[in-house]
Amino acid sequence: MLRIENVSKSYGAKQALKGVSISIPKGSICGLLGPNGAGKTTLIRILNQIILPDSGKVYLDGALLEPKHISTIGYLPEERGLYKNMKVGEQALYLAQLKGLSKAEATKRLRYWFDKFDISDWWYKKIQELSKGMAQKIQFIVTVLHRPKLLIFDEPFSGFDPVNAALMAKEILQLRDEGATVIFSTHRMESVEEMCDHIVLLHQSEKILEGSLTSLQKQFQSRVFEIGLQTTDKMQVMAKLSSKFGISEAHFQTQQDELKFHLQWDLDKSSNELIQTLKAYGEISHFVAAIPTVNEIFMKAVNVHIE
Q1: 3-class secondary structure, 261
Q2: Which of 152, 292, 163, 176 is nearest to 226 (CA)?
């Protein structure tokens, strides 16, 4: 859906992007990650044609990105841009018409979304009368109203309580299921794990990681296993295991009182070999491969890049 080829951008002596190339699959949710100053905001501004790259090209659905494509993109910025003294309905209609909708069609679609979120009584309120979370709902509606095929969300859950954050996440997943491609930039790694199919990590103006969530988890798998072992002498067994393997304490809920620990296993040995080894020490009641979290992948990749 989106192909970015060798894009670079500088602000004077500061290079914000260095030859960044990214390919985002159609109908996916892509997490755009990176520390502050990594180049995420510059890339988002280029995609929205707020600024132009110094070099490189961007393709949207196979076509070179042009001003006409603005109508097929929805953008929710981190810094919200609603006019505080305007009434909600009046402002939403105005912004919808900027995206090419007629007043009649915009009104119809807005009524649908306002009913869906049970906020119809907000129509005549001014933005300044709304809380940050309430205003965020309005901005979300305006972003998706024209049914864009590419949606870009910058910290979409900022200002939401857990209930409304879950509601927004559900709506974003629904938009993906209906055919939209979604990019969202966030520092909430748990949201990335819950929602993203694809991940791009920028650091120091460069792309240092890209791929599906599952492929990156496999790539960064550390071969650590979470184990529960039923044994009559926990201290003696732990001492024996610690002398042979990398062992650390584990905490997980079970209905039995067993020895619980993490074990580092050799990369070139199968998990079946580990199971056979553990059987000599007791009865295995819990055996799970520890999957690296997005936060762990993020930290490892950034640290490797720095080194």
Answers
A1: strand
A2: 292
b (16+ CB within 10 A) / e for 21-38? ebebeeebbbbbbbeeeb
Are 200 and 229 part of one and the same domain? no
Q: What pTM value is reported for the model?
A: 0.80
Per-residue tokens: 59: 């393709």
Structure tokens of 190? 């748990």
Q: Is residue 151 a part of any domain in this protein?
A: yes
Give the single-character DSSP code of 291: P
Q: How many CB atoms lie within 10 A of CB 208?
A: 16
Taken in order 172, 176, 179, 180, the sign of the CA dihedral is positive
Domain total in the chain: 2
Residues 6+ apart with CB under 8 A from 273: none
The parent domain of residue 151 ranges over 2-82+145-218
Quick: pLDDT tens for 161-198. Answer: 888 888 889 999 999 999 999 998 887 888 888 889 99
Cα-based angle 42, 216, 199 (whole degrees, multiple of 5): 25
The rounded distance, in Å, linking the Cα atoms of 105 and 151 is 20
Please compute Rg for the chain using Cα positions: 24
Cβ contact 49:65 at 8 Å: yes
Task: Give me the CATH number covering residue 158.
Answer: 3.40.50.300
User: In a 3-state reduction of DSSP, which class is residue 173?
Assistant: helix
